[in-house]
Amino acid sequence: MTNHKIPACTHCDNKSIFCNLSEDNKEVLGTGKGHNFFKKGQTIFYEGNHTIGVFCVYSGKVKLSKLGKDGKEQIVRFSKPGDIIGYRALLSNEPYQATAIALEDSYICMISKEKFLSLLDDNTKLSTSIIQLLSKDLKGAEQNLIDLTQKSVKERIVESLVLIINTFGFKADNKTIALSLSRQELANIAGTSSESTIRTLATLNKEGVIKLVGRNIVVHDFDHLKKLMLIFD
Amino acid sequence: MTNHKIPACTHCDNKSIFCNLSEDNKEVLGTGKGHNFFKKGQTIFYEGNHTIGVFCVYSGKVKLSKLGKDGKEQIVRFSKPGDIIGYRALLSNEPYQATAIALEDSYICMISKEKFLSLLDDNTKLSTSIIQLLSKDLKGAEQNLIDLTQKSVKERIVESLVLIINTFGFKADNKTIALSLSRQELANIAGTSSESTIRTLATLNKEGVIKLVGRNIVVHDFDHLKKLMLIFD
DNA sequence: CGTCAGCTTGATTACTTTCAATTGTTGTGG
DNA sequence: CCACAACAATTGAAAGTAATCAAGCTGACG
Fold first, then answer.
1. Torsion angle, CA of B103/B106/B111/B117, rounded to 10 degrees?
2. Which residues lie closer than 8 Å to A34 by C-beta, 6 or more apart?
3. HSE on the CB side for A191, CA within 13 Å?
4. Cβ within 8 Å of residue A23, ≥6 positions away
5. B141 at the A interface (CB within 8 A)?
6. Residue B152 touches chain A, beta carbons under 8 Å
7. Secondary structure (H, E, C), chain B
8. Rounded to an integer, what distance in angstroms lies between the CA atom of residue A181 and that of residue A162?
9. Phi (first) and psi of residue A39, to 5 degrees
10. Residuewise pLDDT in 10s, chain B (233 residues)
């Protein structure tokens, strides 16, 4: 059941919170990890499902989203290699509160509920990491709240682009955003419609802030973009 | 420096996360707590300030808010007796991320940073509680996000009323909401303007869902109100 | 009884969404 | 290689929602 694409936990260097565990603990972590390849577009778990464990991203990109009114999707967070997913539901012993979907072909390990919770139980360092993580996510969520409720569509789109860049960075050319999303998905981050997203991107394109190349977005001057996030005409 | 209005931590029964600590720990917690009366409207700490410790509400009501664009306030959470405030900033070693203001005369204890963190360090139970708390807050924040971005002003107002009722309940008559806010503050929860809030309250009043009595809001049929939160015409 | 702050109401304006129609892209099978 | 289907992107127009602006109004309080 071993997967050639993924090293054992004892040799994994994805900088996850598990990397600092003792060798023994990592050994335990690594046994019987099951399937762990997810094709682009494939769902890792659904909002409302019972928890089975936490997922740890080895490679690829993942979106976490919730369904709102009339099934409208709101993307709440992204995950990249080294991030763990689904831990919040597990910690408060609830169903998963969001749906996780692979945005690209991804290798993702699953650590069972029991294993994770027992590790947490006798490992101060791990629980400290978890606390840090939760704090960070909470901060992000609250900031996101302010941003989405008080800013205009244009500002929110800029905000979303900056979020994506901060999470995934640029491609090898150092200016093409490393994640290419559909207009609809971008709209689902900014909390707007795809049409508004298209119009706003067109404006930003015309203003020279970004350059649209098919689905890809090229940013020549990241600082300029970030400045737009703060103050807007 | 003892305050007659507040019992020692060893005898406090506000159901905070500290109540389950050992007697010894509570003893430590209780030494030198300083000023702890906050008048209505008084600020407990400001967004951006250095952390000095966590606050534990003994009695009263507190709002936590952040400043958005143009200094517009967004209320992010309420705290009631037994709740602790300001812990998130402390855990991630950042300035306070929100401003805490007493909504009524309140008695609030302060536990210093050092004391709190050292307690956390050698107390698994406490760190588990903290994890639970963070998880709960994170869930709330993410739900709030969806609600504020996808719902209409009317739905958001209803949502806000339900939040207040769930947090503080009703007065002795069992139908008057226990917290009376200004229209502006209510608007700041729902993320809208005071005018829209007024108009919406007037509509709900006319529809018989609520009854406006000065600043007080009377709810005869809480279930009806809650139903409006879910599906709306 | 005047003042001030908060509340209320109506009118106007700005911004977004929604709807509808068109164009562009991609993958598939003949 | 082309035609076609399916889906995504784009554009324009119309409709809707809520914010803003501009007055009055009200009630508490010195």
1. -40
2. A1, A110
3. 24
4. A10
5. yes
6. no
7. CCCCCCCCHHHCCCCCCCCCCCHHHHHHHHCCCCCCEECCCCEEECCCCCCCEEEEEEECCEEEEEECHHHCEEEEEEECCCCEECHHHHHCCCCCCCEEEECCCEEEEEEEHHHHHHHHHCCHHHHHHHHHHHHHHHHHHHHHHHHHHHCCHHHHHHHHHHHHHHHHCECCCCCEECCCCCHHHHHHHHCCCHHHHHHHHHHHHHCCCCEEECCEEECCCHHHHHHHHHCCC
8. 14
9. -75, 155
10. 455 678 999 999 999 999 999 999 999 888 877 668 999 999 999 999 999 999 999 999 999 999 988 889 999 999 999 999 999 999 999 999 999 999 999 999 999 999 999 999 888 889 999 999 999 999 999 999 998 889 999 999 999 999 999 999 999 999 999 999 999 999 999 999 999 999 999 999 999 999 999 899 999 999 999 998 875 44
In 3D, which of A17, A121, A111, A90 has the Cα closest to residue B127?
A121
The residue assigned the tokens 């307690």 is B119
Token pair recorded at residue A22 = 């003792």
* Min Cα–Cα distance to chain B from A195, Å: 16
Give me the residue from A66, A127, A150 closest to B74, CB to CB.
Answer: A150
Contacts (Cβ under 8 Å, ≥6 apart) of A181: A103, A164, A189, A215
Bases of strand D lying below 7 A from some protein CB: 8-13, 17-22, 28
Interface size A-B, in CB pairs within 8 Å, comes to: 102
Q: Residue B68's CB: how many other CB atoms inside 10 A?
A: 18
> Which residue in the block uniquely carries the two structure tokens 């955003």?
A177
pTM: 0.91
Question: CA-CA distance, B218 to B208, in Å (whole number)?
Answer: 10
Q: Which nucleotide is nearest to A151 (CA to C1')?
A: C15
Structure tokens at A206: 């015309």
From the list A223, A155, A190, the residue with the least C-alpha distance to B69 is: A155
What is the spatial distance between Cα B89 and Cα B191, in angstroms, rounded to a whole number? 23
